[in-house]
UniProtKB/TrEMBL annotation:
Reaction equations catalysed: ATP + protein L-histidine = ADP + protein N-phospho-L-histidine
Residue intervals of the Signal transduction histidine kinase subgroup 3 dimerisation and phosphoacceptor domain: 189-253
Name of this chain's protein: histidine kinase
Compositional bias ranges of the Basic and acidic residues kind: 366-375
Pfam families: HisKA_3 (PF07730)
Species name: Streptomyces durocortorensis
Length: 414
């Protein structure tokens, strides 16, 4: 399994630095192997050199999925030949140092193989390399009995087990990190889909209402159709604007504005907030039928500036969702009240958002109230309730005055 560190600035810097450093070390290792050959013996110096060069190759090359099995196989073959056909066991110091360096290289390679190779390949290669690392000391001195040989090899095999466990642990950490990244991306995509659906659904539902009105009055009062068509056009432009605004916010580094632009550019879209609620209510008022719409909202810039961006965005979403439900399921309601208030201050400052509508006319088609019908594919009030709880607040909705409906969100500002 490969890593994705190249996608991060720190990862790219490490990738650029590791290659040249390993190349310099490889040159030094090759030179040291040539110098150690005459004194330590070429049968000990060559396996040592191949093992260390193999570790450097795996550590420096980015195509580890292909290079790890080949490199491990070459190192294993070299070490096996050194053990089987090496010189008779002696206690010469240069030979012992070369063998110990080779064992260290084999253990490092076990760790890298467990980290980067495919699961089946890693199991086989780590087993082979571990056996070779635990038996390499037999080149220096063979114990007098087979039991002592087995005991010594088993003891030094613990190093290979520890190296494999370290590589496997790093592999598991990387797997969890990649899974967490995928889950975060999936969550962002789902949130984006819900945002687009809810914002556009508010405008599209208005278009539907206006189109239905045009069909009703078109035959008897054709002079009224043109203003309705103009409102339909305005609602369509607003829906396209919602799409563009959401896409621009995605491109920004912090999710509040377009990437690479200064904050002074007021023409660029930014995250939805309390100021946008006024526009939402105005557009609903134009397409809300006979309903009398009242808006009570804090308009002081100083007080609005105290509201965090996430809280203001959630308040906007609550109003959009509630008014969309009124339009879809209580189109003949006589009145709608939208209230956005800061306070009370105790025990902590909160923002209270409330949308209330009166009971619809008895002859409304379908006879359904707002809460009687789900919205598949949208965030809905249940989703907004989860979003409010994530901010430490609450969102409640239910029947108001027999057949009316109220949606209330209380969001802490801290």
């Amino acid at each position: 399994m490969g890593t994705n560190t190249g996608n991060r600035p720190g990862g790219r810097l490490r990738e650029r630095a590791v290659g040249p450093a390993c190349a310099v070390l490889a040159f030094c290792v090759a030179a040291a192997g040539l110098l150690a050959g005459p004194s330590a013996g070429w049968r000990a110096a060559l396996p040592m050199t191949v093992a260390v060069l193999g570790v450097l190759a795996v550590a420096s090359l980015r195509t580890r999925r292909r290079t790890v099995p080949v490199t491990a196989a070459v190192v294993a073959a070299s070490s096996a030949l050194g053990t089987l056909f090496g010189a008779p066991p002696v206690l010469e110091r240069p030979t012992g140092v070369a063998t110990l360096v080779e064992i260290a290289g084999l253990l490092l390679l076990v760790c890298l193989v467990a980290r980067y190779a495919e699961t089946r390949q890693a199991f086989v290669l780590c087993t082979v390399l571990g056996v070779l690392a635990s038996t390499a000391l037999l080149r220096l001195q063979i114990p007098p009995t087979a039991m002592q040989v087995a005991t010594q090899s088993a003891f030094f095999a613990l190093g290979a087990v520890a190296a494999a466990a370290a590589g496997g642990g790093l592999r598991a950490l990387e797997t969890r990190r990649i899974r967490a990244v995928h889950e975060a991306r999936r969550s962002q995509r789902l949130q984006l889909a819900g945002d687009l659906h809810d914002f556009v659904a508010h405008d599209v539902s208005g278009i539907v209402v206006l189109a239905q009105a045009a069909q009703v009055i078109g035959a008897d009062r054709p002079e009224k159709v043109l203003p309705l068509l103009q409102q339909i056009e305005a609602s369509g432009v607003q829906a396209l604007g919602s799409l563009d605004r959401t896409v621009h916010m995605l491109r920004s580094p912090d999710g509040t504005g377009p990437a690479g632009r200064g904050t002074a550019d007021a023409s660029q879209p930014s995250a939805y907030g309390l100021a946008d609620i006024v526009d939402v209510v105005d557009r609903f008022r134009k397409t809300g039928g006979r309903a009398e719409v009242r808006l009570d909202i804090e308009r002081s810039p100083e007080r609005i500036g105290r509201v965090p961006r996430e809280v203001a965005g959630t308040a906007h979403r609550v109003v959009v969702e509630a008014l969309t439900n009124v339009r879809r399921h209580a189109g003949t309601t006589p009145w709608v009240t939208v209230s956005v208030e800061l306070g009370p201050e105790l025990p902590e400052p909160v923002l209270t958002v409330s949308v209330t509508n009166g009971p619809p006319s008895a002859g409304e088609a379908g006879g359904r109230r707002i809460g009687d019908r789900g919205r598949s594919g949208a965030t809905g009030l249940e989703g907004l309730a989860e979003r409010a709880r994530a901010l430490g607040g609450t969102l409640d909705f239910g029947v108001h005055e027999k057949h009316g409906w109220r949606v209330t969100a209380i969001l802490p500002l801290s």
